[in-house]
Amino acid sequence: MTSKYHNMDRRDEKKLVSNPFIGRAEDHPQVQVQTAASTATVQRNKLPKMPSIMSERPILKGGLKGHLDFMWYSNQKQSYLEHCTNHDDFTRNGVHYVNWADVILNVSGRPLAGWKFVWMLATTTLVTYICVKDVTGTNFDDGIDKDTLGYLTFGLSLLLVFRVKESYNRYNEARVKWGMMVNRTRDLVRQFWSYCDDVELNSEATRWTVAFVYACKHSLRWKPVCDDVDDILFPEEVQALNAADHMPVYCMERLAECLRRARQRGLLDTQQVYMMDRNITSFEDQIGACERILKTPVPFGLVLHLRWIMILYILCVPLFLVQHLTWGTIPVTLLFAYTLTGLEDISQEIENPFRETWHALPIDSICACIKKNCYEILARMQQVDRDV
Prior knowledge:
This protein has helices spanning about 10-15, 65-70, 90, 100-105, 115-135, 145-195, 200-220, 235-245, 245-265, 270-295, 300-325, 330-350, 365-385. It is mainly alpha-helical. Helix 11 (about 300-325) runs antiparallel to helix 12. The termini are close together.
């Protein structure tokens, strides 16, 4: 059976490009293609080497050294799920479970007190000094009773639990949407290479499928230029993508154009086009949901009121503790205040899960995973054709 690939001699085999996403072989200066159609003679060991998802992330030394680096020196602009420590089977694959060593020693994952520590220290010290020295000459040093503090505790607890829950729901929903992108991109590339008998068109569709997820990543991070697709798209395609106001939509337009051309040439029937177009529509749904999460934060008034109650509560805690701890009120109040404000800070971090922060989603790794999966499908389909 004749292959749909052009025949290449052994000298031409050595000139194969390493990136199989670059579709038209005759357009690439490194590839010489003969026009005579005959049985493909490309050897199986000449397949391009598939990139590894782990090669796109810095790998730290394994064992204790790697784990200590993860706990103390992690890049705060990179998701903790993208820090590979080679500590065990889980962390090597980007999954970190909290252990007791993290509880005691981990600094990278804790919220920073920052400037808040200054005003917490100043106000706590001032309130404690006034109460201990009875500066006002009144009964202010008697503080407040536990019932008054209990009322504030109840209200603060309800608001804080709601805040954490809402932020995590947004984080989890965003992860679900990116998980659907992984599924739909795999399916679309598989469908092109299984149903459509046109290598050039399939390669183009694969390029734009991978470019779509990188365009989504940069769009959700408010970056106007996608600089991760230079090894995937042709220069003119990269230029056109970066010129678009909405880069993900442009990628979907190119994918729809591939479907249209395949249908016009009779390479796909109506049912196949319908199934494949549903995947492209799913792309629209996923990026739309992510944009909704990005552009609709937790209501401003709710966060403002929560933080106001939190400040009031931190000011009232010394008035209760000073009756029992006197000057020991200061460190205890600071520890208590850090616990409350830390929860609020983490909630704010995961409220926008697309940021380049330690607590954000591992979007870089998800994009690399999609790229790797598409390489694998492409190479396997090419191998099948070469074996025919």
